[in-house]
Amino acid sequence: MNVPTTHPDGSGQRPGPLAPGTHTVQVAGIAQRYHVHGSGPVCVAHSGGPGIFWDYLRMPALEEHLTMVYLEPIGTAEDSRLPSHPHGYTRERYSSFLDVVIDRLGLPKVHLLGHSHGAFVAAYHALHRPERLAGVVLYGGAPVTGPEHAEEAGRRVEEFAVKHAGHPGLPGVLAAFGAMAGISSDEETAAVARGVFPSYVADYWGNEERLAPIRDAISATFISGLDDDLVPDVIDDRVALKGLELPTLVVVGRHDVICGPRWSLELHELIRDSQLVVLEDSGHFGHIEEPALFTEAVRDFVDRTSVPRPGAA
Questions:
Q1: Does domain 16-146+229-305 have CATH number 3.40.50.1820?
Q2: Can you give the pLDDT at residue 15?
Q3: 20 phi/psi in degrees, rounded to 5
Q4: Where would a tag sit more exposed on the chain, N or C end, judged by fewer CB atoms within 10 A?
Q5: Where are the domains of the chain?
Q6: pLDDT at 53 exceeding the cut of 70
Q7: Alpha helix (H) ranges present in the chain?
Q8: Distance CA 229, CA 60 (A)
Q9: Contact yes or no for 122/289 (Cβ under 8 A)
Q10: What is the pTM of this model?
Q11: Could you give the CA distance from residue 209 to residue 255 in angstroms, rounded to a whole number?
């Protein structure tokens, strides 16, 4: 599914919806932005949170092989907020906006990569709107949310605390986890995301000089996780995923505390003929921690499952 990389006038720039840079689609008065970088087969990326700004998911190494279309999830900018903000950001709503962007790209099929909460959205989209997808990458995701997921995350955080007992940075990380349940503002959301970040990578304090700027750059908007009726959008895809027929790549970091290997192994077992890649020296951000291995896994998957354009050699 290669896309043109040369403008008809010979300038080397792609025209239209896949031109490099930022694009905006208006959907019922709400701005849905996406950002195009790189060249090659097209992969749409849905970032996580919900509410974390999209740019943490930039993948420069992958952009050398693929045209990455980074979705800017609705709600993270003032002109992209729902009337019900901070509520109403369900997977169905994210998926419907994602569908508009995929349609705008004008290609028969694209690949879809979802990270963290974006992996839950990608799974939903693959289950309910698979027609325009050549394959899906579930990166740092899980088949469920709710108490079972929270219990596993709590266990992983406890393991992190034991491993780093006595480190001066540990109390701040644990305090940030404790503050999660009481978040009610953009500022608190960003502060908690930065606070827990050392536990979300395999070795933050051993690589603090490189990782601290990434942590400090995190921006976020408060998204409640409730639907329009203020009901939690609890997820259990276990039954549905057994019927998923799209080519699927599951990627996880061995040291991921929030969506660890247990969940990716379960995704792999549920989804027929899926491929599982475990990044042994990564936490939740393998594209930052082990970019070469992450890039190789995604690039090879996209190459293997791409659909050639009509008339392509």
A1: yes
A2: 62
A3: -60, 140
A4: C
A5: 16-146+229-305, 147-216
A6: yes
A7: 60-63, 91-105, 117-128, 147-163, 170-179, 186-200, 208-216, 238-241, 261-270, 286-289, 291-305
A8: 40
A9: no
A10: 0.93
A11: 20
